[in-house]
UniProtKB/TrEMBL annotation:
Transmembrane segments: none annotated. This is Expansin-like EG45 domain-containing protein. It is found in: Secreted. Keywords: Secreted, Signal. InterPro entries: EGC1/2, Expansin/allergen_DPBB_dom, RlpA-like_DPBB, RlpA-like_sf.
Amino acid sequence: MGFEIRVLILVTVAVLVVCLPSVAFAAQGTATFYTPPYVPSSCYGNQNNGVMIAAASDAIWGNRAACGRSYRVRCTGATNQGVPQPCKGTSVVVKIVDYCPPGCRGTIDLSQEAFAAIANPDAGKIQIEYTQ
């Protein structure tokens, strides 16, 4: 191989090695929803944080470390209950403002408005991918 081709290959490999770690990892879980009133919340007391919010289950709560984090949530499919094809093909960004206590039925408990933006609320519970 010529010198130029070897340099090009090395540069290409170096770029790939640098870029690959920056690819976002999407975790998988389930989402449910809760209805208003959304205040008070575990993270912000009586402060109103709008409606694109969520409560974190123990899977991401981290002893309040999740408070204020934003997650992009996308519906990936139905669970064994509810609507067979609930997903709308969109995603939503939510802010963690509350805690979903033990027994929580989902990884993330979305506000009713956030859930409705990505899935049919009649489903009740959906499969999701989420990234911080």
